[in-house]
Each structure stands twice: as C-alpha cells, then as structure tokens.
Amino acid sequence: MMYEEYNEHDNNEPPRKKGGFLKKAVLITAGAVLFGLVSGGVMVGVNVAASGFLGDMYAFAQASSQNSQETAEPAQSPSQAVPAPAPATDVSEIVEQAMPSVVAITSTTVYQNGGFNWFFGGGSQTYEVPSSGSGIIIGENDSELLIVTNNHVVEGASSLKVAFVDNEAVDAAIKGTDPDTDLAVIAVPLDQIKPETKGKIQTAKLGSSDDLKVGQGVVAIGNALGYGQSVTVGYVSALNREVRVSQNSTRTLLQTDAAINPGNSGGALLNMKGEVVGINAAKYSSTEVEGIGYAIPISLAQDIMSDLMNRKTQTPVEEAERGYLGIQGTNVTEESAKAFDMPQGAYVYKILENGAAAESELREKDIITKADGRTIRSMTELQECVSYYKMGDTITLTIQRQENGQYVEKTVEVTLKAMPSEEP
Q: CA–CA separation, 183 vs 296, rounded Å?
C-alpha cells in the first residue's frame, strides 16, 4: 500500500503546549509485517492531525520527537499516577472457546526493482519478503475452509500458509479481496486438513458490532509479531470512528485500547460473549498516546465477506492452459507516480498484434490499476493475477487513461488467448 504525507490544521484550535500531539512525526510500518524482516525503506513519515485521523491507518505507528530541542512536559509523580483498571479478571473461558477459530497467516511477497522489458518477464531484480498476520474461520463450502483477514495481510503475496490452533500449517489461496475496505477471504482445501486438526478447529461465532457500547470489555486474539497466537484485553473506546486512510478517503472503525500489534492484523476482536465484533486492523502508538487500536466492525464487513466467499479461488493454472493479455509493459512505481503525477500500476507501452488485448478496448499508454477487483501496482502483480485464468476466460481490468490532460478511470474486458509470438 502507498503511504502519503498529510498535514491537517484547524485554525480554530487553541495554541498547544510544547510536546503536544501535533509535535510528533509518526513512522509507519505495515501492521502485517514482522519486525526485523523489512528494511527501513518501507517506513514513511506521516503527520497525525488533531482530529485523530491517521495518514494510513492499516499500520503500526511509532512516534518520535519532531524537535529534539523541545522540553518535554514533566512526568507524573507516583502519587499522581492513576492505574487503568483491568476490564475483566479472567477471560480464559472466552479465549478457550474462540481460539480454535483464529489462525496465524504467513505470507511471502515478491518485490522487484526496475521494469519489464518484454512481455511479463526479464530485465528486473526480484526479492522475497516474508510477513505475518492473522485470520478468522468464517465458514466452508463443499471443498474449502474459508478464512477472513485484512487485504493488506495477503496483498501481493506469492504464497500463503495458514497455521491452526494445533500449529498444523497448510497452504492457502486467495478467494477474493476488497482493498477499499481492507478485507480479504482466503481458502484452504478441506482435503489438505488432517482429521485430527479438523476436530480441533471451528467456525467463529459472529456477533453484532451495532450492539456495542463504549466502555464494554473486548478481547483481541492474533498472531502478534509472528510468534503465534496471543491475547490482549481492553475496552471499546469509541464507536463509528472516522479514520483517514488517504487524502480523500476515510473508513468507519471501532476504537479500542486492547493492544493490537504487528501480526495481529486480521485477527478477532471479541465481546464478552466470545462473539467476533471486529476484525483487528491497526494500532497507533506514540510517546504521548497509548491504547489506540482500530478494528473493522463486523456488521459493516459481513456483506463484503459474503461476496468474497463466493468468488473463484485464485489457483495458478498450468502454463500450457494459461491465458495471456498480449502486452508489453513496465511499472509505474510509487516514486514515479509521485514524481510525474501518474497512477501507480502497470503501464501498457505496447499491445502485441494478434494478442488478446488487441481485440479489446485496452490501449497503449493505459495504466492498469486493478484486475477483477484486485489492486495492481506492478507488472509482477499483473502477471500473478493473470496466471489464475485459462485461455478463453474473461478478465475485467480497471485502467487509468489520459483524457484532456487528466487520468480518467475506465473498465475494459479482455478475453484471454494463448501467448502470441514475439514480434521481430
């Protein structure tokens, strides 16, 4: 996901003391990524507004002082400190009931430097980055166990593994994703799950986030830091919190003070009945702010989850049967997008004669940003997405096309064909 830098000011606000909330610069690191596995290159500075909005909320944020010369406010003395009461003395029963429905997710994402010089291959350096997250078992069909998680946990993943409550790990595949809500459903073939494991796992009990009240106790379960399942406890801090996720977009989320750490993304937020009321998504942390975590309300997520559960599982097709777009392209990277005011995605610089794209409305200079609803940020991601389709299948591409000096979003359908011969 892209991280932007934002500044928001309220001219009606009174002056703030030194060391105040707006005096901090926040470093953002993706919440699904395990500490120590990603270089500092993925960290970006973001300013947090007085309204409490985050520049990108699907992340773990760690704040540092913007001006080392400022004088910090004195700490409270022991006599002034007021300890926070625990929301419940014992939640072990709730955890025992819910743990079999929560899974740990390990993914591997392929990143690349440079562009592609010929039809989906060659000319760039790639490297793999492992990451971790969590998921919730929400049902099954005739052949698959279905698990909901965050889109950012699985986005761009070249491989996925799911570990159940007994630590048995199996391969998983993406069923469907919705980047706008940061939701995804992944599938595990039922015949790949051992009978002993099947006897230990269960489908989660879904509650209603609409029935929550501020101050009610909640329990968060997830794969914190990629070390395995762990439990934290807190309260519902706020309902229907509008959190800014981009310059022009916000999401409505639950706010809680239950600790949510990297790897918790996609895990369960439970009420005191053991019902899932939210899908953990983010944490904000700084030297002056504690206990601000966010979860996607389950009542808002259910319709989207139902749609994603019914999509075609993204399983790679044998190369001999695979369909192809028939294009040459390159990457519009995040840096290029900012520098040249272009959308990030896969730039089509040539459409091959007799290829599938030549018989569609796709045009040279179009930038492909989605394929069947899946976000596309590079030719690698486009190649991976197309690899799930056979010759004769139709794929819907979301593209950005320049018209009168501005990029306009359009959709184009392409019926895939065999790979055309390379032109001389």
A: 9
